[in-house]
Specification:
- It is a single chain.
- The protein has five helices and eight strands, in the order βββααβββαββαα.
- The protein is of the alpha/beta class and 207 residues long.
- It folds into two domains: 145 residues, D-tyrosyl-tRNA(Tyr) deacylase (D-tyrosyl-trna(Tyr) Deacylase, Chain: A, 3-Layer(bba) Sandwich), CATH 3.50.80.10; 34 residues.
- The strands form two sheets. Strands 1, 2, 3, 4, 7 and 8 form a six-stranded mixed sheet that branches. A two-stranded antiparallel ribbon has the order 5-6.
- Helix 1 packs across helix 3.
- The radius of gyration is 22 Å and the shape is globular.
């Protein structure tokens, strides 16, 4: 799991014309969830974010107090592009957790943060939406975090990559096209027909 933590004087999230959340002084956290992440990664990240000493104390001494010490707010925003891997100049996101899983994971992350701090001081954007994030960085102060992780078994990682590739191919064809292919009768002479396979899954298997 990766995070970009920014100390802010204010921050807000807008979707279309609607402002969905805003905070005053505190932290704005952009969070990138990986296919490798587990509950331990979430717990580590929550602990680090809430305890980072990014604020001054009552004597103006810098780097002395955390967001919890100061009772400031935290704005969290799901940001899958933090898991980008560049292939030349083209971004590749196969290491980002797929949306269906990451939404559940992200909500559990938020719940853990609320239980570790004060629920009313934890805000978030709108998962999966096209957002405008307005940040007034204080300093500027920006910290990058990454949870320590045990790499997945190579076979398991390859399986996850293939699953993501199949989803991308299906999405690229579009629902109407893939639906027609599934429902279309296959001729016995059709060389692409495969016993026990549905649709064109067989064409995506490794030789």
């Amino acid at each position: 799991m990766k995070a970009v933590v920014q100390r802010v004087t204010k921050a807000s999230v807008t979707v279309g014309e609607e402002q969905v959340s805003s905070i005053g002084r505190g932290l704005c956290v952009l969070l990138g969830i990986s296919v490798e992440d587990t509950v331990k990664d979430a717990e580590y990240m929550v602990r680090k974010i809430l305890n980072l000493r990014l604020f001054e104390d009552e004597h103006k001494k810098p780097w002395s107090k955390s967001v919890m010490d100061k009772q400031y707010e935290v704005l969290c925003i799901s940001q899958f592009t933090l898991q980008c891997i560049l292939k030349g100049n083209k971004p590749d996101y196969h290491m980002a957790m797929p949306a269906e899983q990451s939404e559940v994971f992200y909500n559990e992350f938020l719940e853990h943060m609320k239980k570790s701090y004060k629920p009313e001081l934890i805000k978030d954007g709108k998962f999966g939406a096209y957002m405008q994030v307005h940040i007034q960085n204080d300093g500027p102060v920006t910290i990058e975090l990454e949870s320590p992780r045990t790499p997945l078994d190579p076979k398991q990682l390859l399986k996850l990559e293939k699953q993501q590739q199949r989803k991308e191919k299906t999405r690229a064809r579009g629902p109407s096209e893939s639906g027609r292919e599934k429902n279309a009768p296959r001729s016995k002479d059709d060389p692409s027909a495969s016993s026990g396979a549905e649709g064109d899954v067989s064409s995506e298997r490794e030789p």
